[in-house]
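User: Hey, my collaborator sent me this sequence without any context and asked if I could get a structure. I don't really work with proteins. Can you help?
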Amino acid sequence: MKASLYTLALCGLSASAMADTPASQDAFFDALRAHCGQAFEGKVTSGNEADANFASQRLVMHVRECSDIELKVPFHVGEDRSRTWVITRTGGGLLLKHDHRHEDGSEDKVTMYGGHTASAGTANEQSFPVDDFSIDNFKQNGLSQSVTNVWHMYVYPETFTYRLTRENRDFRVDFDLTRPVALPPAPWGHE
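Assistant: No problem. I've predicted the 3D structure and written it out in structure-token form, which is a compact way to encode the shape of the chain:
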């Protein structure tokens, strides 16, 4: 239900609202969208003991669904296909949400969390501080350590990076954009 309401809200975004996205964010969005239909392997380049499971798995991102206002990028961790990053132009910037699903396609109780850009960033780097919806969701689900999350995405000609920072945490995965890999199966809930 949460994702459905989110999707309905996006349908109300007008083309004129999209025109107000800062140029640096348009360039960032378009640089990532240029990889639509491709998948890339990555590796953990920063993390702690909580990230050991990620570091031991094959990590693949797939720029799978692309429109003028939204990108859906599944992030596969081994056989786990539960994660999809959703990047949306909002007219006032970019919004990052994490769509988490169970294997049967149903939504996880912690899903659609993320944040909106607080500054224009650059054509290569964008940051997404945690939003109020996510803070409430984290608190309700016993994840109080996540209420100060900031997610960062970097896109350069040779590398895409997904990074999560907060006090005592700096998790980072770098993906090699120069070597596309075979496309993974669809993420759970997005067949």
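In plain terms: The helical segments are 2-11, 15-18, 23-33, 52-55, 132-140. You can pass these tokens on to your collaborator as they are.
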